[in-house]
Amino acid sequence: MRPQVLFPLFTDIASLKGIGAKYEKLIKKLCGDKVVDMLWHLPYSLIDRTYQPKIATAQEGKVATIKVRVVEHIPPKSKKQPYKVVVEDDSDEMILNFFKVYADSTAKNLPVGEERVISGKVESFNGMKQMTHPDYIVLPAEAEKIIGIEPVYPLTAGVTNKMLCRLVRQALQRVADYPEWEDDKFVHQRGFMPFRQALLQAHFPKKIADVEPSSLARMRLAYDELLANQLALAIVRQKVKKQPGRVLASSGELQRKVLSHLSFDLTNAQKRVLAEIEADQKAPFRMLRLLQGDVGSGKTIVALLSMLNAVECGAQAAIMAPTEILAKQHLETMQPLCAQLGVRAELLTGRVKGKARKQILEDLALGKINIIIGTHALFVDDVAFKDLAYIVVDEQHRFGVQQRLALSAKGNDADILVMTATPIPRTLVLTAYGDMEYSKIDEVPAGRKPVDTRAVPLSKLPDVVAGLKRKLDDGCRAYWVCPLVEESEKTDLAAAEERFATLQRVFGNKVGMVHGKMKEAEKDAVMEDFKSGKITLLVATTVIEVGVNVPEATLMIIEHAERFGLAQLHQLRGRIKRGFQASTCILMYGYPLSETSRSRLDIMRKTEDGFLIAEKDLELRGGGEILGTRQSGFSEFKVADMSVHKDLLYTANKDAKLILELDPALASPRGQALRILLYLFGQDDAVRTYRS
């Protein structure tokens, strides 16, 4: 049950006065459904309304609050002209301009001969002071209400700052003095104020520094949010760790046979990670582990070796990929190796239909198939296993904590390994995958040559095409990546279709194209032609970003590279790191280049270390859109900003572990206060998990 002290904050946002049906939808879209959501909608700037000059001395371009007398109203002669109101004080006259107004309401607001206090930006036209649409027009007796510092909030069309200020004030009145959930010593050390005071200071800034993420009030709120996040994940992790699992302890015979058939040795990093996974498999509790490895670091072979451990114990294993192309690729890698061991590996995707599907489902239920490879189609209701003990999820970022727990229910206390080729900064591993153990392959196989990465302006397009021709004539295969599918009126990006047509005129039928709007079958056919060498140049959008394996492709041209995020560029470049030949990546950019874009291209030229690139990406983008849209499963924080509050996250992580060690039932006074914190930041699931 949510603590009663929080009830006023968790009512519908429509319960605030002055929203009404007209604005309810807009406010909900902007802030959220509940009153509590208003608390986290913080101002990004402020307006100083303390400047109170006379009209004659009012500085142009400044926001001024002036006491005036209304002289006359001048209605417009045409629709294009503003409705004017002449006002004065004892120093000069001024004109107030109103566009699209009702004369009646303006006359009521500004009656001739009466005094009003107006506030807004001062302008000048033909030597006369002006103010267009004053922000405030109030009676002199109410002037105190508007003179001061006004917070400026992020808005949406139809919602005014004035309206939002009014609603936030109401929401803040519902915040009680909650018991302190932070450690007293830590609060004192950091100079943090109590939660309620921090919230008020964040919403009523006195100076511009108060709206920065580094201000003390925001740091306090960010730490509260991060602690709620880390504590919630630690609670779930504790539960997962205690869930009974299978003991998968094989003799390692199948693994040894596979290793003897490979043409390469495992890297030290692969051996280390395999040992970590095997230790989990042998433990009596269920495994939930994240395996991170950069493009081409050899995650697939690690996955296969750990799956064979389950097979040797007489159980079944499954590997789930996000796309059919990737699932097929896993089949091509694994099936020949499995066949030599007498282990049966099969593919099951949405495209396997009729008799073939029926046969696979029968054999799977009877345990005749040892390893099944597929897309999310593996986990639909009619797919039954005889004894599924091990699940590998590849490149699936959209799995939240709850889905990860639900997935294991399909198996018989199955262990789960989640793999990703997108290097994730440590901060994000903690906040998005804090419920999981964590392994990292931070070494590439011996003999891999570095990619020669160059940044070239778009003006040199003819030279790039000439160089591409020479490469293709020498038998090379290449990718040409475009950011959009269709030419948009609003952008000058070269669209894939247009680029395809241009390159076809140069290279004829040796050019193919893939993009996201194509049917899966069409896409697969083009990819097969590219793999076989029937086509040697592939024009593509970012659909080729994940997992396409063509070792013969050694050249990649990325058009308008400045429009891509760092992690995306790194993923794309990974497509030409598949073989052991030297390869080249050309980043073509348009002018003008922003400082951030220039930094991105520089980083790409200087390093191929995906983990370093991911950290830099986080620094450049800030905490908002991290690692591109593909990773939308990552935690979006309301207050915390990972580019600023990284150190607070590490502290919160340690604090959460310590809390559960000392007070596993959250029964102490601080534990009870922490329950309020968890509910306050919407971590109800963790509390429910805890209870159960």
End-to-end gap: 13 Å
Radius of gyration: 31 Å
- Low-confidence segments, given as residue ranges, are 489-493, 623-634
Characterize the main sheet.
7 strands, mixed
Count of DSSP-assigned helices: 24
Number of DSSP-assigned strands:
22
State the secondary-structure class. alpha/beta
Determine the strand fraction and express it as a percent band: 15-25%
How do the strands line up in the largest sheet?
6-7-4-3-2-5-8
Shape: globular
Mean pLDDT: 86
Percent helix, as a range, is 25-40%
Attribute tags:
single chain; 692 residues; alpha/beta; seven-stranded mixed sheet; seven-stranded parallel sheet; 24 helices; 17% strand; globular
Q: What does this protein look like?
A:
This protein is of the alpha/beta class and 692 residues long. The chain contains 24 helices and 22 strands. The strands form 4 sheets. It has a 7-stranded mixed beta sheet with strand order 6-7-4-3-2-5-8. Strand 2 (63-74) and strand 3 (83-88) form a beta hairpin. It is globular, with a radius of gyration of 31 Å. It starts with 19 loop residues before the first helix and ends with a helix. Mean pLDDT is 86; it is low at 489-493 and 623-634.
Structure summarized in a few sentences:
The protein is α/β, with parallel strands linked by helices. The protein is built from 24 helices and 22 strands. Strands 6-7-4-3-2-5-8 form a seven-stranded mixed β-sheet. A seven-stranded parallel β-sheet has the order 12-13-11-14-15-10-16, sandwiched between helices. Strands 17-22-21-18-20-19 form a six-stranded parallel β-sheet, with helices on both faces.
